[in-house]
Structure formats: structure tokens, C-alpha cells
Amino acid sequence: MSQTVPPTYNAASFNCPHCGAFAGMEWQSLRSPNYAYTMISMAVCHSCNDVSLWVSPGKLEGDVFAVLAKATKGKIVYPAQILEAPAAHEMMPDEVKGDYEEARQVFSLSHRSAAALLRLSLQKLCEELVGKKGNINELIGLLVSKGMPAQIQQALDAIRIIANNAVHPGELNIDDKPEMVAPLFGLINLIVENQIAQPAAIEHMYSSLPAGAIAAIERRDASKK
Question: What is the pLDDT of residue 1?
Fold first, then answer.
């Protein structure tokens, strides 16, 4: 699973807030006659050609473009800030990814809303892994009965309990501990990596073995039954 490089003001490359690809950025300075003490910049993604807009304070002394070039602080204002949440795993199912990406979009505005959307993402992910709909707690139990590693089970339950408390406050108060929500994004990706990406990689490698070798393995295993 590749590391996400968050968008950074004036950086030459980072993960695009639109397409998610790690790509080079072409920076352009924009001048606003209505806001003389605000520097506005635009970063164009080399992958999708979409733009992000940034603002930074500064004084129009001399060449505005020289001022912009020296600026070190800037804040992204478009699209919605998602710097603190990692992009979805490339093998995350589409029906899960939609809610996950929405959680990224709202995370900086409402941790509780992001947690609720991650709870929905987890529900759909468990249904995808089990192959049927049902109560999320029971679905996790089914996955455990099928041999799910204990650490992945703990990740599932951590997301379930923290997200549930974000919607229905109980022993945990997410408003008091918003830092508990951010790691849930990584846990969702970890579950996808363990339960979808790794098995797919192993199956691909095994299926590429010579037919004779696979037949020999099947005969060996059949003799043990």
C-alpha cells in the first residue's frame, strides 16, 4: 500500500485532492483586485488536469509574483480540505469507496460526520467480505469464525465502537476526543489490504504456477483428507 503525500502549499508534487494520484503540480499565481492583501494560487494536477485553489496572506509590495514565490504558508480552499485523511486503498470496493471518500471530504469540518460515514463504510465492507447483509456485529463474528486474524478483528471492532459512539454518545465522547477518528481511515485501508489485496496477490501468484505443480499439490493435500 503506497504512502499518501498530503497536498502542501507550493510543493512540486503530492497526492492530488481530486484524483488521488501522486503527481507533479504546476503552480500559477492569481491576482485579486478585491482582496489586495490575500495571495491566491492555483495548482494544476499533471495527472487529471484539475485545479486546487490556495490562499496565503501577503502584502503587495513590489512584484506580486515574487511575493508569492517566497510565501511559505498557504491554505487549500478548494476542493474541501482532506489533508488529514489518507486516500482509499486502490482495491477498496466501489460501494465502500463512495462513503469513505465522503468521510474524507467532511473530516476537517465534522469529525462526528466522518465517523458516521466510516461506520457505513465498515458495514458495506463487512457485507462485501461475508457475501450477505446483516448486523455488523454478527458479520464481524462470521469473519472471525472463518479465520480472520485477531488484529484485523480488533480493527473492525475499534471502528464499530468508536463510530457508534460518534452517532450515539455513550462511554466515548468523540467531541472531546476527535483524535480518535483520524486513525479509523487507516484501519479501513488496513482491513482492505489484509482481506482483499493480499489474498488476491497470493491467488494470482499461485495460479501462475505450472499446471503440473498445482496438480501435485492437489494430490498431496487430497491424501491428507
Answer: 45
